[in-house]
Amino acid sequence: MKWFLLRFFDVLFSTLGLLVGxxxxxxxxxxxxxxxxxxxxxxxxxxxxxxxFVLVKFRTMKVGTASVPSHLANAxxxxxxxxxxxxxxxxxxxxxxxxxxxxxxxxxxxxCLFNQAELIEARNNRGVFDARPGIxxxxxxxxxxxxxxxxxxxxxxxxxxxxxVRRYFLFIIQTVFGKGSGDRVRGG
Length: 188
Description:
Elements: H1 2-20, H2 22-35, E1 40-46, E2 52-58, H3 80-88, H4 95-101, E3 105-107, H5 117-125, E4 134-136, H6 138-141, H7 149-162, H8 165-176
Parallel strand pairs: 3-4
Antiparallel strand pairs: 1-2
Helix pairs in contact: 1-2, 1-4, 5-7
């Protein structure tokens, strides 16, 4: 019942977010064309049950930047608009589409890349892939990112075990009000 209710909230809030946020999405897209020429970033990520899906975000790094986890990327690749989008977490807005499609949840473990073998193994050993990946969660509001795969997997597993409707809303509210530092970038 809990998972059904959380999915209901995912659909409701992602639909509302996309409808209400449409003007903001349009403005960021337009500015993004001037910033990088390609404002929307698509990348294959590891989803629920380790199935691939295409994550959609606003582009924060220069076109052609290597496809690596943020903590391995170079800060010089981040564009001026990208810096603002990362700090404000607005780069995540297009992921509401992934949530609406059922590939993601608002709250869950951040989806990793298929080349993050250590994190995939650690998450697999803890059953993290049984849940939908999310836009935010315990690790994100606690400042834990993919640079510490074992700690991240442990934190994700704990969040999934202890997730309640109350905590679901708590993680969303904490994220909206700026708790957590987002993904760290080398030299950033």
